[in-house]
Structure formats: C-alpha cells, structure tokens
C-alpha cells in the first residue's frame, strides 16, 4: 500500500469520469433491457449459410438437439411419454369440464399444442396440455360473458377467440422481448393464488363428487358451501358419493406412496387411468347410470376439427375475447416459465424465457385454429415426465400420438365414465398446488410477501379467481412501489480494529466517529424517492445532533453520504442533493460524498453539483473521508 508522509494510508483521489458517448449509452441501456442474454452472439463472425442454420435452430430448437438424438434417448422419452399420456387423458376430460367445455376439447388441447411445443420449446422436461388453474380461470371469465348452456355455440367461439388472443399475447411478449413483465407477479403471490385456486377447484368438484344437479355458478367458498348444504337432503346421490370417495382415497394413497418412495413415481401417474377404467366398468356392469350416477355419455370421435371460422375477428366479442385471453395467457405463461425454470435448474441447463413465450404463444395460436383451448405447462405432468427419465421434448410428441389414438379409437369407451371419478382425479391433481411449507417459509422470510400470498389466497377463495389474481398483482406492484419510494437508509459506524464502516443496527459494536455522521443510501435516487431520502437523512442528522447535545459530546460538523449502493440518480435526485446541501449549510454541517458509482459521478459533474460540493469532498471510501476530516473536527 502506498503511504503518505506521517505513515497515514494513501487517500485515492476520485477523478471526474470520462465523458460518456450518448449513442453507446443508449445502446447499452437497450441491450441490457431487451437483449441481456445477447441472443445474436452465436451469429458473430459466421458465414451466411451458418447464420441461416443457426436462425432455423433458434426458432426450432429441435433441429439443434435433434442432431445428437439417439435410440437410448428415444427409449427414455417413449417411457416418459406413455406415462404422462396415461395421466393426461383422464385429466384432460376433467379439465375441459372445468372450463365449461365438452370433454373432447381437453383431449384436442393435448394433441396439437404439445406437437408445436416439441419443435419450438427449449425445455426438455415440461409437459404441455390443459391445466386446472387456467381451465378454471378461463371458464370463470367466459361464463361472466356468456351462459354456456343457453348459448353453447357462442360460448365455444369465445373460448377459441380467447385462446387465440392468449397465444397472441404470449407470442408478442416473447417476440418483443418483454418477458420481464411476468416477473412483476411475485413468487409469494403465485403461491397464494395457486393455493386459493386449488381450494376453489376442489370445491367446484363437489358437484360431481356428490352427484348434485343444481349447483351454483359462483366460485366463492360461501356460495359453494351454501349450495352443497341446501341440496343435502334431496340433491346428493349416494352411489355417486361412494364411487367418488373410494377412488379419491385410492388416488391420494397412490400419491402418498410415491412421496414416500420416489422410485414408485409411476403409481400416481397410472392411478387416474386405472381409476377411469375400473369405475367405467363398474358403472357399465351395474348400470349405475340408471340410478342417478352422472356419466360422461359422449365424446366426439376423431382428431381436431378446424375452428378458424369460429373465432370472432369482428363484433362485440373481439374485445371481450382479447381481455379474457390476455389474462389467461399471462397466468398460463407465468406457470409454464416457472415450471420450465424449476426443472432446468434441476438438470443444470438453461431455458430462454423469450423463446419459451414465442413457442407457447405459437402453440396456442395454432391451437385456437384447431379446436383447442389455452394449454400450458402442467406441473403434475412435468414432474412425472421428469421422474420418468425424459431426455427431450420427444416425450411430448409420444404423449400427443397416444392422445391421437385415443381420439380416433377409444373415446366411445368413455361413455360410462362417471363424472365423480373425473372430480376425484381433479381434486387429487390440485391438492399438490397447496404448498403450506412454502407459505410458512414466506412468513419467516418476509412478512410483506406473506401479505401478498395470503391476500391472493383469500381473494380467490372468498371472492373469485379474477379478484384473487387482481389482489396478487396489486400487492406485488404495491411492494415494488413501496421499495422504490421508501428505500432503506442506514447510519454507519466503524467496526473496532478495522477501517470498515457498517450499519450500527447490524453491528451494535460499531462505533460512531465524533463530530461526523455517516449515512448510507441503499437505493438509486429517483423522482419517486428523492424527497424521502433527503428528509430521512435530515432526520438522521437531527437525531444525531439531539444525542450530541444530551451527551454533551462533539456536535456534528460533517455528514458523509455513502453512495456505493446508489446505482443511478436523476434530475430530481440532483435537485434533492442541492436542497440537502442548502439545509446543511444553515446547520453549519459540511456534505461529503463517499464512493459514488460511475453513473452517479458522471451526473454530479454534468450538473456542476460536484463543483458546488467540492471535488476535495468526494472520496473513494468512507475510511478515506474519515481519515481526511476526523482531525479537522472542532472539539470545542
């Protein structure tokens, strides 16, 4: 270390930064905002033919990983695909009913979208198809606009329209690289929303589980339970209850077995299909349908018919379809990206969020044209896919082919499948969405996050799915605004026997320097928080002055503002420092700046504020500032 005369540590001078290049600065900001992953990096210094090949692989990743595909990988994908197909078929039939659609539309949505995703998606593990939460959300929003019984055709057309706009929203977010927008829905809010949705979905299944014919269309827990108890004496079917409860117990037991022994992951995967087969045989042999047991009755046979002509491109329903689709699309996107990232981290590979959005958007746009409703990544199926040893997205292709065979050959066999078994399958599937351990952890870590979690949960359960979603988004935004407008500040003290200065609340042994107050600002200084930061610093100063008077110690003569966490400052921030400087002048306190970043220092010089403060009062570290000014403190 270089040493000055008197053997004091060298004080490094903080020079004015080089003048920024405006064009380069704008380019850097745009790159970090929209192209932080540097997607064009592989194309640099490549011949035209190679660039063309890379472009095709960027849009269709299957042409990249497909070059190293092997028979061994196919065997693994085949087993995984068959396993998730056995799980998805009964789930799809139930989820379609949840969305207010005929059973075949759930199967359609597990045929076309997975094929599109397999070619365009970057996740190896995600399993595509209808999911419970999105099905409930879509059905709720659609039924707010159209009665699915009285206006069946219009309801179906609006469902396809919403799916088209959901896909368009997802595609646009990915194409214009706006994927960061989905991060505004916090993890805590998602946990609460999913848990509330799971409760709501389970309550909705009481209609099928208890054999109730006249059931409320509302989703809140009060309305549902009132409907259940009002029909207790005349609306419950005890044969239906017997079927539903027995198979629900079987499905939950299968999940418990797999949870205790990971090697038995295939048990809960096959359990729904086994339940459907056994319950269908029981109903057929006993003709329980004649005793009031509600059954599926009919599923259209054959592959997806075209639905291009059914989408509303004009009229009043276009805007309604866009609103419903945008909401459903964002929720579906959030769920799929979260699932994709979870399994990618487990296998140590990266997924491209924007590519995922383009892939999900494309599959839903194509799906809307082929009689599908909104599809996304399913956590339960993706978990089974992962545990089954899938290697690539080919497992989605295998699942899709099994669904194709089901549509062509097997759908008539579902005629006697009881609705109670579909209700049981849905309940057992959504139970896993209630993550109590995660909620407890959120409470321990961050109380405000817990408010977001519990607010979203109660919003869904006691009001409606859309209100719960609105609460989740609102609280997430409120947290961001609170953190931006009310950033943290801290008084620093010297940790004994070091030249390090830290928060005195974190380090109670840290000692204050006589006559000097050191304050750290833990945020960028913008128009939204500049006045608060100025006022908070002055309050710290007032408290310190009051303490010095009470203790009859040296009055505060220097205020050091530690700015290493301050990443940026705008004109309002500059103005607030000018006001702070003026207030300090009246108190005969001098302002010292420690460790301003490049951007902050550049703006201090550009505004001439550095000259007003004094370039000799801008230091590299707090220790340098203390070393310079502590001897100058007037002890009188």
From TrEMBL:
One GO cellular component term noted in the UniProt record for this chain: membrane
Residue ranges crossing the lipid bilayer per the database entry: 155-178, 184-203, 236-258, 264-285, 393-414, 420-443, 450-478
Subcellular location: Membrane
Record InterPro entries: S04_transporter_CS, SLC26A/SulP_dom, SLC26A/SulP_fam, STAS_dom, STAS_dom_sf
Domain STAS, chain residue ranges per copy: 506-629
Entry keywords, A to Z: Membrane, Transmembrane, Transmembrane helix, Transport
Membrane topology, record value: Multi-pass membrane protein
Pfam families given in the database record: STAS, Sulfate_transp
Highest taxon listed in the record's lineage: Eukaryota
Molecular function terms from GO: secondary active sulfate transmembrane transporter activity
Protein name: STAS domain-containing protein
Organism: Kalanchoe fedtschenkoi (Lavender scallops)
């Amino acid at each position: 270390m270089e040493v000055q005369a008197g053997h004091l540590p060298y004080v490094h001078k903080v020079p004015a930064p080089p003048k920024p290049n405006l064009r380069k600065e704008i380019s850097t900001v745009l790159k970090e905002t929209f192209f932080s992953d540097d997607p064009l990096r592989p194309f640099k210094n490549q011949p035209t033919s190679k660039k063309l090949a890379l472009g095709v692989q960027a849009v269709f990743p299957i042409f990249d990983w497909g070059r190293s595909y092997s028979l061994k990988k196919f065997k693994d994908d085949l087993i995984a695909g068959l396993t998730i197909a056995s799980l998805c078929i009964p789930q799809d039939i139930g989820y379609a009913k949840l969305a207010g659609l005929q059973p075949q539309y759930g199967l359609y949505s597990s045929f076309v979208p997975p094929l599109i995703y397999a070619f365009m998606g970057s996740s190896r593990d995600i399993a595509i198809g209808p999911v419970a939460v999105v099905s409930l959300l879509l059905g709720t929003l659609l039924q707010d606009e159209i009665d699915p019984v009285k206006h069946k055709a219009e309801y179906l057309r609006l469902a396809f329209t919403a799916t088209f706009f959901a896909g368009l929203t997802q595609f646009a977010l990915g194409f214009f690289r706006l994927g960061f927008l989905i991060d505004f829905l916090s993890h805590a809010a998602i946990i609460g929303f999913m848990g509330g949705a799971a409760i709501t979905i389970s309550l909705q299944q009481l209609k099928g589980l208890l054999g109730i014919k006249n059931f409320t269309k509302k989703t809140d827990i009060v309305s549902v339970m009132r409907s259940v108890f009002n029909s207790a004496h005349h609306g419950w079917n005890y044969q239906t209850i017997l079927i539903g409860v027995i198979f629900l117990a079987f499905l939950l037991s299968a999940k418990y077995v797999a949870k205790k022994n990971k090697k038995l992951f295939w048990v809960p995967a096959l359990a729904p299909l086994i339940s459907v087969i056994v319950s269908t045989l029981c109903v057929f042999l006993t003709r329980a349908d004649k005793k009031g047991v509600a059954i599926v009755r009919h599923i259209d046979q054959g592959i997806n018919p075209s639905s291009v002509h059914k989408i509303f491109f004009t009229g009043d329903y276009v805007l309604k379809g866009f609103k419903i689709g945008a909401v459903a699309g964002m929720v579906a996107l959030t769920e799929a990206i979260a699932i994709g990232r979870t399994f990618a981290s487990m296998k140590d590979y990266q997924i491209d969020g924007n590519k995922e959005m383009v892939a999900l958007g494309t599959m839903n746009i194509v799906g809307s044209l082929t009689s599908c409703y909104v599809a996304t990544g399913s956590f339960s199926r993706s978990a089974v896919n992962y545990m089954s040893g899938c290697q690539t997205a080919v497992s989605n292709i295998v699942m899709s082919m099994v669904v194709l065979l089901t549509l062509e050959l097997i759908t008539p066999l579902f005629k006697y499948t009881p609705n109670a078994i579909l209700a049981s399958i849905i309940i057992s599937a959504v139970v896993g969405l209630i993550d109590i351990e995660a909620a407890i952890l959120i409470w321990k870590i961050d109380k405000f996050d817990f408010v977001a979690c519990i607010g979203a949960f109660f919003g869904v359960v006691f009001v409606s799915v859309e209100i719960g979603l609105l609460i989740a988004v609102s609280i997430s935004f409120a947290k961001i605004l609170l953190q931006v407008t009310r950033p943290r500040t801290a008084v620093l003290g010297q940790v004994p026997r070091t030249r390090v200065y830290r928060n005195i609340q974190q380090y109670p042994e840290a000692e204050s320097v006589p006559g000097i107050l050191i304050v750290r600002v833990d945020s960028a200084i913008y128009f939204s928080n500049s006045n608060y930061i100025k006022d908070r610093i002055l309050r710290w100063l007032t408290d310190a002055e009051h303490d010095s008077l009470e203790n009859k110690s040296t009055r505060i003569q220097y205020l050091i503002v530690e700015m290493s966490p301050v990443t940026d400052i705008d004109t309002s921030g500059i103005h607030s420092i000018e006001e702070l400087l003026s207030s300090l002048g009246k108190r005969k306190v001098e302002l010292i700046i420690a460790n301003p970043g490049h951007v902050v220092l550049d703006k201090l010089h550009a505004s001439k504020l550095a000259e007003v403060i004094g370039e000799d009062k801008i230091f590299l570290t707090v220790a340098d500032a203390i070393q310079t000014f502590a001897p100058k403190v007037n002890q009188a």
